[in-house]
UniProtKB/TrEMBL annotation:
Belongs to the TMC family. GO terms for cellular component: plasma membrane. The gene is TMC6. InterPro entries: TMC, TMC_dom. Its main location: membrane. Keywords: Membrane, Transmembrane, Transmembrane helix. It comes from Tursiops truncatus (Atlantic bottle-nosed dolphin). This is Transmembrane channel-like protein.
Amino acid sequence: MSRSLAFVLNVPETPQDPEDSQEPSPYDESEVHDSFHQLIQEQSRWVAEEGLELQQRVLGAGALGASGSDRQALLGPEGAPVYSTATLRILASMPSRTIGRSRGAIISQYYSRTVRLRRRAGWPQLRDVGRSARPSLRLYDLELDPVVLEEEEKRGLLVKELQGLTVAQRDHMLRGMPLSLAEKRCLREESRPPRGKRRVRGRHGLLSCCSRLRDSCILASHNLGLALLSGLQALMPWHYALKRIGGQFGSSVLSYFLFLKTLLAFNTLLLLPLLAFIVAVQAAFPPAPSGSTPAFRGLELLTGGGCFTHTVMYYGYYSNVTLNQPCASPLDGGQCTPAAGGLPYNMPLAYLFTVGVAFFITCITLVYSMSRSFGESYRVGSTSGVHAVTVFCSWDYKVTQKWASRLQHDNIRTQLKELLAEGQLWQRPRRACGRLQQGAVLGLVWLLCLGTTLVCALAVYTFSELVIQQSRVSAERDWALLALPLVVCLLNLGAPYLFRVLAVLERHDSPVLEVYVAICRNLILKVVILGILCYHWLGRRVGTLKDQCWEDFVGQELYRLMVMDFIFTLLDTLLGELVWRLISEKRSQRKGKPEFDIAGNVLELIYGQTLTWLGVLFSPLLPAMQIIKLLFLFYVKKTSLMANCQAPRRPWKASHMSTVFISLLCFPSFLGAAVFLCYAIWQVKPSSICGPFRTLDTMYEAGKGRDLPQHPGGEGPAESHLPPQGAAKQRGGRQNLLNQQASAYL
C-alpha cells in the first residue's frame, strides 16, 4: 500500500502523412475510448490486489458474522458502511444511479474530439503530462459510485485536453456540447490556464502584438454584434409589454394589441409614399396664398378647418400645374422657361399615381399578411401532441433574470389553461330541449340586434338629410360642424353596449363563438353607418357644393369623425371601464373586475382604419393622424387593462383570432374603401376652384397625359393659366371657402 497509483493513458498516435491533413480514422478513436474505459478496471484490480477491501459491519451491536459469508462489511475512511465491488456494480445499474451516465458519455465523446484536434494541431499528447498532474482513484472514497468516479476521471481528462487547445477551438467545442450553461461555464473556468503559465505559439514564447490585436478585434466585434442584437430587440415596439399582456391575460387579449401593432405598420407603409411624392414636393413649391389666413383659435383641432384648410393637409391646397425649378427671368406673358437640367413634375399625375401605388402596396401587404396568418393558424398536424410540446419544450433556458423567468412562467401557465379549456369545450353535450331553447333565444337576440342596427342607420340618414336641408342658412359657428360626427360616434358607442347586454341571454358554451358573434354584430353596424355616410358625401354633398371645394369638405368630415371617435374611445376606456369595474365590485361583494371587450375594441380599430383609407384621397396626411391615434391608444388601453380588467374567467386559445382580424380588415374594410375611391376617381366631377384636378371632368383624365401649364418656380399662383377674370373669381372663392363650409349645416 506504500506505492502510489497513477493513471497511464495509452493513446496510440496516428502517424502523420506527408501533407499533414489526414483526419484520424475511426479505429484510432475507438482505441482512445477503449483505453479510457480500461482505466477504472485497472485501478480496481490494483486496489483489490493490495487488500483494500474490508469486511462488512454487522448491524446491531457491531459483531462480525462468519468470515466465509457473502455478507461482508467494508470499513470506509470514516467508519461509514460501504459495500463490496459486486454490490456496488449492482447498485450502479439502478435507475437512480444511471441518470447521469449520459453526461459522462457526452464528456467522453468531446474528449475524443479534443484528442483529434490536438493531433491535428501537433500539440503534445496526454502521456507527456507529468504523473503528479494526473488524477488517482486513491484520492476518492471507496463508497462512491463507480459511475461517478468514471465521470470525474473523464471530466479531468477533458479539462486537460481543453487546456491544450487554442481559445477559438476551446470556445467552439464548449458551445457545441449539449450541456447546461452552468456546466459549460465550469469547464471554461477549469480549462483556462493561469495568467503566468499560458502557452503561446509565438516564436519566442511570448504573445505577439499581432495576436493581441487580432484577439482584441475579434472580441470587440463580438461584443459589438451582441450589443447591436440587443439594441434591435429593444427597438421592437412594445416587446416587453406584449409579453406581459400575453402572460397575464392570455392570447385572446394579446391578439387585440398585436392587431393594433399591425395597423401601425400598415399606416406607416401608407404614409411614406404620400410624404415623399406629394406632401414634400408641394411643400417645396407652395402656391401663392389666396387672401389672409385665419388665426389659430384652438377649435381647429376638433373641426379640422380654419387655418388647416390652406395647408398640405387637404386636397384643395395642391396645385394643378407642372412644377419646375425657379427661373431667373420670366418671358413675356408671365411664363417661365425651365432651368437647364430641371425635371418638370406633373402634380396631378403624381397625386393620382401616388395614391394608387400606396393603395396597391397596402393591398399586397394585406394579402401577404392574411396568407401568412392562415398558414400559421391552420397548419396541418399542428394540434398533435401540443400538450406535451407545451409542457416539455416551452421553457427558454437562456432566461436568467428573475422577472423574465416569472413572465415566462405565467405565459406557459396561461397557455396550458387555454389548451385544457379548449379540449373541454366539446365534452359538454346538450339535450334536444336545451338546443331548441337556445336556438329560440339566439333568434330573438339576433332580431333585436338587427333592429337596433336598422334604427341607428335611419337615425344617421335622417340627420344627414336634415343637415343638407339646413345648409342654405348662413352662419359662422364652427361648432355646428361637429353635429354629424357627434351623432355617429354616440350611436357607435351606445349600440355595442346594448349588444353586450343582449349577449348575456345567449349563454354560449364557447367563448370563441361568443367573440365571433359580437364581432359580426358590430361589423354590420359599422358597415351600414359608413355606407350611409359615403352616400351622403358623394351622392348628396357633391350636388349641394358645386361652387365650393367639396373635396376639402369630405376630408374635413373624415378628420372630424376620426377625432371624435378617438375622444369617445378615450372616454369609454377611462370612464366606462372604471365605472363598470366599480359596479362589478359592489354587486359581487368582492374584487371583481370586468373582462376586456375584445370584439368592441377590435371593431373600433377596423372602423378607424376604414376612415383613414376613405380619406387618403382628400387628406394625404390622414395616415399620420391615425399613427398618432394608435400610439396614444396603445398606452391608454394597456393602462386601463392592467388597472380595470381581469383575465377571462373562461380561458380560451385565440389560435385563429389574428386571421379573422386580418380578413375583416381586408374585407369589407379595405375593399369598401377601394370601391369608394375608385368611384370618386372615375365618376365624380372634381371641383373647379381647388385641387390638382380642377380643370378636368374626372380625376382619371389626369392619367391620359394632358399638357399642363408651367408653374413659375413656385412664385406665382397655381391659377396663373386662367384668364384674369377667372383667376380673380377663383381667388375670391378660395377666400370665402371657410365661411361657406361653416354655413353648410345651418
